[in-house]
């Protein structure tokens, strides 16, 4: 939970062509703490959620505008914005997943047709509410002659299985960078381990390794989607 990314991609009809450019704006410490607070039960959650959705949408619009300026483009050059929003609660076992974004405000601020709410249909079909990553990996990596697997290591790691002759699917495999990020913030007051520098100066702990192995083993049932709250 570090900021807003905007990626400019080129499509030909429904066919992926290439990623053209990327832009990023970080969350302020205050915004990050407000978002993290909404992952737990608290006071006046509806009001706080809607205010944060507006704040995020303004930041998303700034990120889009920064990207367009860097590429010497205008809103009329863009077919659409797809905006996922910031996940604050994910409970597929209860049939819901909450992402904060005000799509109408984002469209108004950017002047670009905007789409979102990418998880609800998958949840309605008894999915885990994370249909986007397998579709993206399928567009880039599927092969007509072999089954491929793509592992994406984000805060939570997820894997996509790409058969040549049946629908692709994916699921979360367990914690990715989130545990290291939490450790970095707690011990060194840094948001993440830049370039993976800390392990080069450390010694392995058998106890820690065993604990991590136990966590990963206990999280092995599939299919599933996990949230940060699974690993307090």
Tags for this entry?
9 strands; single chain; 232 residues; two-stranded antiparallel sheet; three-stranded antiparallel beta sheet; alpha+beta
Strands, helices and their partners?
Elements: E1 3-12, E2 15-26, H1 29-37, H2 45-70, E3 81-82, E4 86-91, E5 96-100, H3 103-110, E6 114-115, H4 120-124, H5 132-141, E7 148-153, E8 156-162, E9 169-175, H6 178-188, H7 206-218
Parallel strand pairs: 3-6
Antiparallel strand pairs: 1-2, 4-5, 7-8, 8-9
* Contiguous uncertain segments of 5+ residues: none
Strand content: 15-25%
Integer average pLDDT: 87
Helix content class: 25-40%
Rg measurement, Å: 19 Å
Would you report the number of β strands?
A: 9
Q: Which strand order spans the largest sheet, edge to edge or round the barrel?
A: 7-8-9
List the quaternary state of the chains. single chain
Structural class: alpha+beta
Summed up, the helix count is 7
Largest sheet: 3 strands, antiparallel
Distance between the termini: 15 Å
Shape: globular
Order of helices and strands: EEHHEEEHEHHEEEHH
